[in-house]
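Input.
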Amino acid sequence: MWQPTSRQTRRIREAIRTNPQPFQNLFKDRAFASRFPGGFCLDNSATRVPRGFLESDDNLNWIKLKNFVVMKEISLKAFSSPNFSDELVHDFTQGLRLNRLLDKALQDEE
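Output.
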């Protein structure tokens, strides 16, 4: 989720704090981890602990995120491969699993 609203960000952070297991399981899953070995992109994180959260909260690095995205580098060779579209389908299939977790986090609070 790129540039979520403050309300959406809060809901996702709460989901990570109260029920981190689905996120942890996803990032540990071999199929997902092989596509996105870096996990969440940590480039856009809050410098301080968000209001309502504690320094001691588990998964604080995820709670501090402002965007909830995964990325992977694709080499020029892979990009020009005849199998590139198949690889993209596999990437997007795994990415959809994260989208579903984020959607659930947003719906659970409504």
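The two ends are 18 Å apart (CA to CA).
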